[in-house]
User: Which sequence fits this backbone?
């Protein structure tokens, strides 16, 4: 069996052999893993595959294995969120996306590593240790969905689910040379996904190719009454897989090519844009003047929401619990021992930003900037269909290189977080390499216009071979 | 008469009421009918705040809040939204409470009460929706507790917090406001005040137009008067001794009837409010007309109608409309063709008076029987049928029983669990009004046996007549009608 398979190939393989055999081979690859991509491997995966073999299943993903980020609730599997505080927490209910996957016949291989509570861009803040980038085991896979991206890149799952609050699907997709989509806010139900910053995040798929992203979106997207921010867009994602970009208008926002961008990244992205020119479409430069404030706004909003979201982890009902002479002492100690440094930093900063006397200066101002950023997107996307830019300004950095310098680490989200402020869809596709490390092209679109984004990405992929390259170290 | 308010008292109230007539909680599908259930049996991942869960707003709770707003003659917000109030407490499973902040659903309402000097208007600053936290249960007494248990059955029950202007000038006005407020809510059928924890009150109080003090934890609308009387006395004495009133929050100790300092202004908590990102702002203007249609007749309107329709006194009308269940009971009694004025007397004066005397509160009415329950001991409960009241009023109107006998019937019905009709009770207790010849005979005997008293009376000592009437009553075992007896004796002696 080839190590890297598309969903279509996996399905063929199941036809030839069985779901059990396919799952067993992925489990074998996971067993030999060099990357620490999984936090938990499901003991039930084989059983699930056997059941599908025995009973048959007519779902679109019958027997197809998938990896799930460890902040998405799956009954029976710990949902640790990369944290000590939730190491022992097993949810009694499935996330909406998990219900959809199970109904489609997918086999859940396990839960993938992530930055603690999705707070990070390198997967280094995980309580379970960092995940290695399959392209260079000394480098980070990006984050926070680093485990999901890395296992897909390493052939330990055909595809995976991540979540994207400020770039957490697209950043690791770019660093690991896979495809990752952050859907429009509201396209995928967040029910059962542990919140980091509710107003910003979406569940998103990661895969080896654009077509598999669409396959997964057709399964997980759609209205869910349990998520009041969910919207029924009735989008048919696979229908957008058309190899034709004629008539598509591309905008290139110069603000995404700012200071500090790696020259090879800049070159690769321009090469990609020129590729579209070869395919018969032109591009125009667009201006998004408020993008420079997006990062600050993003971090204030995300941390503020996080400070509230994470208040429930107090050791009273579930998860890690320290002992203390009274409830308040117990809670303080539980949180002091249960959360890692980055999580504590963000809770403190978020608490500060929402405090009386600072609320207007920080939180309120961040909301105003968010509106301006959104208006930038509205304006730019009124003239063009998609925007193109580098996903990450740099390729994957070394494990330990930036972790002691949070500000530098935060700056790496500069091109991904504006998208979350605006709520628009954005995909990262492989578009080149520098020193053997993948580079991602980011394609952004109008709200619920995933079809335009997917069409542009699919056409690019069909006319390039970056997505067929595999990391030699794990081959 | 104008009330002078000699101590310059100003009282404002913050009242939390549970929308306990709604079937489900504020943000999940759990039942609100938990009062007789084991702890933590009315919970789900959402109201336990498990990670990954999201709130979904109960539309009925919003409708109920709009109803309340309209009944309070308030302005209903065009757009309303929810905020998070962040604080740590074991009964709060998410570490924040979903509530409303700068866009409350209701603002600028009013309630007219019977004030110290007649009708008095209390302004409603705002009313907003929020979720109830869980409940802490101490093992043993609070002081010697070995531990605390948490019951999340209450977690997520829809609440409305109503904030009044500081318009009340005495503890009595505060109590009257709460009585009226509760009455209105029960008319709207969104609230059952008899359930434990249904209404919780905090009060702001100041004297001599000075600094206000917040008194928290007044668990019943009955406790409010006592708590405020204490707090006003305390403040007046602090000032009398030359002290200063601090802006602080005090805790009401119901057992001891005193308020104790909890925290000063400097220690006030910062709740770090921000908009709840999991719920969308709502435009509700369009809902209002349809909800207006469903508004029932409210207490003041019903009171006016009762006077008009049944020809009863304002006092009786006020009393009968003070509880929707009582008003409905009265109207159903009248519908059976009884004399509405007599029915009003027996319902408002005697029945209600006997309930109050026993500390019983009306707790249910199903169109056939009105139920009541002891204010402190819910095991003590009973009911009276509409048909029983109809029978009693008719027997009295037809002069078949004396008023004393009728009172006796009502008392018997309240005090015995067995269901008996008034006729049965009258039969068993021999309460039928005495036959005329029996009375005539008793009068003749009395006159014959009490020569001295007869002489005294004829000599001008009016008191002696009372003695003679008493003797007749004694002989007839109280079944004679006192007034008639008196007239018959006079006729006999003076011709």
Assistant:
């Amino acid at each position: 069996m080839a190590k890297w398979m598309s969903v279509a190939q996996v399905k063929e393989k199941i036809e030839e052999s069985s779901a059990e055999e396919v799952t067993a081979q992925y489990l074998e690859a996971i067993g030999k893993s060099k990357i620490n991509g999984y936090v938990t491997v499901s003991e039930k995966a084989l059983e699930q595959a056997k059941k599908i073999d025995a009973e048959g299943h007519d779902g679109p993903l019958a027997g197809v294995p998938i990896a799930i980020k460890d902040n998405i609730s799956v009954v029976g599997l710990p949902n640790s969120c990369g944290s000590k505080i939730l190491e022992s927490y097993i949810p009694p209910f499935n996330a909406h996306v998990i219900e959809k996957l199970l109904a489609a016949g997918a086999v859940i291989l396990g839960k993938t590593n992530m930055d603690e509570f999705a707070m990070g861009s390198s997967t280094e803040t995980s309580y379970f240790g960092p995940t290695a980038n399959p392209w260079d085991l000394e480098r980070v896979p990006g984050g926070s969905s680093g485990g999901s991206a890395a296992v897909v890149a390493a052939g330990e799952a055909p595809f995976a689910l991540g979540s994207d609050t400020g770039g957490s699907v697209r950043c690791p997709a770019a660093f690991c040379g896979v495809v990752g989509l952050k859907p429009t806010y509201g396209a995928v139900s967040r029910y059962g996904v542990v919140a980091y910053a509710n107003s910003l995040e979406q569940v998103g798929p990661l895969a080896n190719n654009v077509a598999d992203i669409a396959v997964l979106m057709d399964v997980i997207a759609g209205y869910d009454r349990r998520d009041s921010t969910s919207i029924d867009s009735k989008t048919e994602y696979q229908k957008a897989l058309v190899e034709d970009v004629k008539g598509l208008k591309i905008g290139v926002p110069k603000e995404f090519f700012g200071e500090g961008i790696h020259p090879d990244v800049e070159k690769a992205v321009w090469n990609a844009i020129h590729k579209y020119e070869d395919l018969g479409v032109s591009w125009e430069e667009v201006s998004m003047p408020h993008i420079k404030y997006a990062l600050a706004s993003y971090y204030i909003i995300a941390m503020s929401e996080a400070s509230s979201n994470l208040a429930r982890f107090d050791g009273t009902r579930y998860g890690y619990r320290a002992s203390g002479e009274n409830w308040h002492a117990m809670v303080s100690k539980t949180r002091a021992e249960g959360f890692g440094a980055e999580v504590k930093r963000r809770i403190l900063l978020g608490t500060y930003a929402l405090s009386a006397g600072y609320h207007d200066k920080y939180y309120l101002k961040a909301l105003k900037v968010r509106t301006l950023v959104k208006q930038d997107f509205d304006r730019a996307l009124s003239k063009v269909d998609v925007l193109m830019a580098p996903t990450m300004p740099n390729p994957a950095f070394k494990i330990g290189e930036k972790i002691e310098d949070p500000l530098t680490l935060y700056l790496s989200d500069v091109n991904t977080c504006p998208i979350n402020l605006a709520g628009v869809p954005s995909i990262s596709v492989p578009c080149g390499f520098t020193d053997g490390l993948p580079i991602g092209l980011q394609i952004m679109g109008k709200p619920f216009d995933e079809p335009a984004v997917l069409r542009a990405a699919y056409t690019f992929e069909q006319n390039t071979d970056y997505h067929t390259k595999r990391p030699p170290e794990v081959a | 008469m104008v009330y002078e308010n000699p101590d310059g008292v100003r009282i404002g109230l913050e009242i939390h009421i549970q929308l306990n007539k709604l079937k489900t909680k504020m943000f999940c599908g759990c039942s609100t009918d938990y009062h007789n259930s084991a702890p933590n049996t009315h919970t789900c991942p959402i109201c336990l705040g498990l990670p990954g869960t999201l709130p979904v707003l109960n539309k009925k709770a919003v409708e109920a809040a709009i109803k309340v707003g309209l009944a309070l003659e308030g302005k209903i917000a065009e757009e309303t939204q929810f905020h998070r109030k962040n604080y740590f407490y074991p009964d709060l499973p998410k570490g924040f409470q979903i509530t409303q902040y700068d866009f409350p659903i209701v603002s600028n309402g009013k309630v007219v009460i019977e004030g110290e000097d007649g009708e008095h208007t209390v302004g409603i600053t705002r009313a907003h929706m929020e979720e109830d936290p869980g409940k802490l249960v101490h093992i043993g007494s609070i002081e010697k507790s070995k531990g605390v248990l948490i019951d999340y059955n209450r977690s997520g029950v829809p609440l409305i917090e109503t904030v009044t202007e500081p318009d009340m000038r005495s503890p009595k006005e505060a109590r009257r406001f709460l009585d009226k407020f509760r009455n209105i809510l029960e008319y709207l059928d969104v609230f059952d005040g008899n359930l434990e924890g249904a209404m919780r009150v905090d009060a702001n109080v100041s004297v001599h137009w000075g600094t206000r003090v917040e008194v928290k934890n007044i668990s019943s609308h009955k406790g409010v008067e006592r708590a405020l009387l204490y707090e006003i006395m305390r403040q007046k004495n602090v000032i009398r001794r030359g002290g200063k009133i601090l802006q602080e929050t005090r805790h009401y100790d119901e057992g001891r009837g005193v308020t104790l300092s909890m925290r000063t202004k400097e220690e006030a908590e910062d709740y770090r409010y921000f908009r709840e990102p999991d719920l969308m702002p709502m435009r509700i203007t369009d809902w209002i007309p349809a909800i207006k249609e469903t508004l029932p007749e409210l207490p003041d309107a019903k009171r006016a109608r009762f006077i008009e329709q049944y020809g009863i006194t304002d006092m009786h009308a006020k009393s009968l409309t003070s509880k929707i269940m009582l008003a409905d009971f009265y109207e159903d009694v009248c519908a059976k063709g009884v004399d509405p004025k007599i029915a009003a007397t027996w319902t408002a004066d005697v029945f209600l008076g006997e309930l109050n005397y026993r500390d019983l509160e009306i707790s249910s009415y199903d169109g056939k029987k009105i139920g009541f329950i002891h204010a402190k001991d819910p095991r003590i409960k009973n009911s009276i049928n509409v048909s029983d009241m109809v029978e009693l009023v008719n027997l009295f109107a037809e002069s078949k029983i004396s008023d004393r006998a009728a009172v006796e019937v009502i008392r018997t019905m309240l005090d015995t669990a067995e269901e008996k009709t008034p006729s049965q009770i009258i039969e068993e207790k021999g309460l039928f009004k005495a036959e005329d010849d029996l009375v005539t005979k008793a009068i003749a005997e009395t006159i014959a046996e009490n020569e001295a008293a007869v002489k005294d009376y004829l000599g001008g000592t009016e008191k002696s007549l009372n003695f003679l009437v008493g003797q007749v009553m004694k002989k007839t075992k109280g079944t004679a009608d006192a007034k008639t007896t008196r007239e018959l004796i006079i006729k006999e002696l003076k011709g």
Remarks:
- Residues 59 and 103 of chain A are 7 Å apart (CA to CA).
- Chain A has a mean pLDDT of 97.
- Chain A touches chain B through 46 residues (CB under 8 Å).
